[in-house]
TrEMBL record:
Pfam families: GMC_oxred_C, GMC_oxred_N
Family of the protein in this entry: Belongs to the GMC oxidoreductase family.
Upper taxonomic lineage: Bacteria, Pseudomonadati, Pseudomonadota, Alphaproteobacteria, Sphingomonadales
PANTHER family reported for this sequence: CHOLINE DEHYDROGENASE, MITOCHONDRIAL, GLUCOSE-METHANOL-CHOLINE GMC OXIDOREDUCTASE
UniProt keyword Lipid biosynthesis present: no
Protein's UniProt keywords contain Signal: no
Domain Glucose-methanol-choline oxidoreductase N-terminal: start-end pairs: 79-102
Identification of the protein by name: GMC family oxidoreductase N-terminal domain-containing protein
Known cofactor(s): FAD
Domain of life: Bacteria
Length: 528
């Protein structure tokens, strides 16, 4: 039977970071068990191929019907394969606000204040702009500026600035507020997923199993002793002498814990699963950024579009990328944007914009003819809380995902205020000079009518967290050193541990969590 020191479940943002850092320790043997493939396809590496990511690299989950979205099911893309969601995401490099982490510390998560996490963000980073108080160089995660932003994306920044929103050249610097062009996790014009950053350089030192779906954690005498997984039609086990680290993401990690008998006892019994630990918080506190996307049709250039001319220029951009890894095909699509407060009394921005120089419908799944631009606005610190529950005791079955979007009236109010501010920006010069026509809300100014349109169209902007929440309270799933309560040698290292959603995109914060978990595990092993 296979035996290693550490087994990591899931090779996404958190899992790749923790596995890579632990494998750097020559005394440790690390196995990384990932349900998906190696994700070495050029469509993953080429930023401009983001809308055409291979199906096998995306779990493509759906939510249960959402009352707050007029009964619709939401779409929940999640990365599958090495790199996880960082292999299919928009590559934006954002940490959130300093207040978010100070808030975690105030919630009882000792050791997670901004002062505590900033050095970890810096050590993870290799920022092409160089080093300063906020940024690091020489770390595994490549971060760079965009060099080919669409003129329309720059016009968004100018339009917002004309309304007195501050220009912010560094959202990860002294303040989050303001508008600008996002930095991206790319190197040499290629996507820099967490797997490229942390796993590829240590390939020789990590026992990587792909196409391997973890079915449950083996728990013996109250201790995580290894995992059982399905691979190539066979059922296998791998034992862990030191620790098992679960990093299956905000949907995968609570699912794996519940399948292992760690979760709400009644729910586990309903599925015929023997209860190992009755932990009510597992799969609870699901939080996600609810988002409304506006679309404005224009006559044509400079926006990306599905016309003969648009297709030719996309092909030209693709050839340029193949030749020199440069040009418009390095786009993250969400090129510019920013952060704003809908009320002056807030401790940090509560809405974020993502400007896309193309028409976007239904997460890009519905192709739209013609040219135009889109803009997202999302609620950064939602009050709505949902759940992840088992649909079945079969690990291959998708879990039941219920973000309870817009179930809290405060989120509706914030999103409405965000949409109003976004419309003012999109209709200000110089963006207005493109003569865009709002495809969904033109002429609608009544609050109730706007809310109806929002409920008909809003959905995730892909940042679910909170389902294995960290806390100092005994009810939390993991303690502030990411140890699962009441089980020895078991950790969680992904977005699911966030006690409150950060005010921004979640890849860099999740990598930071993976980095920290490696520190905690190493320190705990040294004490045994
Ligand atoms: C479309 C999209 C766009 C996004 N854009 C951005 C962005 O621009 N910037 C940003 O900061 N964030 C972005 N995000 C969010 C960010 O990428 C995620 O928050 C982050 O990657 C989550 O990391 P994680 O480790 O929690 O989970 P993941 O990266 O999703 O990793 C979980 C891994 O575990 C594996 N797994 C799950 N269950 C099992 C099992 N039972 N056995 C074996 N393996 C398993 C999965 O296959 C996956 O590889 C985006 C996300 C998506 C989906």
């Amino acid at each position: 039977m296979d035996e290693v020191d550490i087994v990591v479940v899931g090779g996404g943002s958190g899992g790749a970071a923790v596995a890579g850092r632990l494998a750097a320790d020559k005394g440790l043997r690390v196995a990384l068990i990932e349900a998906g493939g190696a994700n070495t396809d050029w469509r993953i590496r080429a930023p401009g191929m983001m809308p055409f990511i291979p199906d096998a690299s995306n779990w493509r989950f759906e939510t249960v019907p959402q009352a707050g979205l007029n009964g619709r099911r939401g779409y929940q893309p999640r990365g599958r394969g090495l790199g996880g969601s960082s292999a299919i995401n928009a590559m934006l490099y954002i940490r959130g606000s300093a207040w978010d982490y100070d808030n975690w510390a105030a919630m009882g998560c000792h050791g997670w204040s901004y002062a505590d996490v900033l050095p970890v963000f810096r050590r993870a980073e290799d920022n092409a702009r160089g080093e300063d108080r906020f940024h690091g160089v020489g770390g595994p995660l490549a971060v760079s500026d965009q060099h080919s932003a669409n003129p329309g994306s720059l016009a968004f920044v100018e339009a917002a600035a004309s309304l007195q929103l501050a220009r912010n050249p560094d959202f990860n610097g002294a303040q989050l507020d303001g508008v600008g062009v996002y930095q991206v996790t790319q190197k040499g014009g290629e996507r820099w997923s967490a797997a490229r950053a942390y796993v590829e350089p240590r390939r020789d030192r990590i026992d990587i199993r792909t196409g391997a779906l973890v079915e449950r954690i083996l728990i013996e005498d109250g201790r995580a002793a290894g995992v059982q997984f399905a691979q190539g039609g066979a059922r296998r086990t791998i034992r862990a002498r030191g620790a098992v680290i679960v990093a299956g993401g905000a949907f995968g990690s609570p699912q794996t814990l519940m399948l292992s008998g760690i979760g709400p006892a009644g729910h586990l019994r309903d599925h015929g699963i023997a209860v190992v630990r009755d932990r009510q918080a597992v799969g609870g506190a699901l939080q996600d950024h609810i988002d409304y996307v506006a679309g404005y049709e224009t006559a044509g250039a400079p926006f990306i579009g599905q016309t003969l001319r648009g297709t030719l220029s996309t092909l030209g951009a693709m050839f340029q990328w193949f030749r020199s890894r440069s040009g418009p095909f390095t786009t993250p699509y969400a090129e510019s944007g920013g952060f704003a407060r809908t009320r002056p009394d807030l401790p940090a921005p509560d809405v974020q914009f993502h400007f896309v120089p193309a028409l976007l419908e239904d997460h890009g799944r519905t192709k739209v003819k013609g040219h135009g631009f889109s803009c997202h606005v999302c609620v950064l610190r939602p009050h709505s809380r949902g759940t992840v529950r088992l649909a079945s005791s079969d690990a291959a079955a998708a879990p039941l995902i219920d973000p309870a979007f817009l179930s809290d009236a405060r989120d509706v109010e914030t999103l409405l205020a965000g949409v109003k501010l976004m419309r003012r920006i999109l209709e200000a010069r110089p963006l207005a000079d493109y003569g865009g026509r709002d495809r969904h809300m033109a002429g609608v100014h009544d609050d109730a009518a706007m809310v109806e349109i929002i409920r008909d169209r809003a959905d995730t902007v892909y940042h679910p967290v909170g389902t294995c929440r960290m806390g100092a309270d005994p009810d939390s799933v993991v303690d502030p050193r990411l140890r699962v309560r009441e089980v020895e040698g078991l950790y969680v290292a992904d977005a699911s541990i966030m006690p409150a959603l950060v005010s921004g995109n979640t890849n860099a914060p999740t990598i930071m969590i993976g980095e920290r978990c490696a520190d905690f595990v190493k320190a705990d092993l040294a004490q045994r």
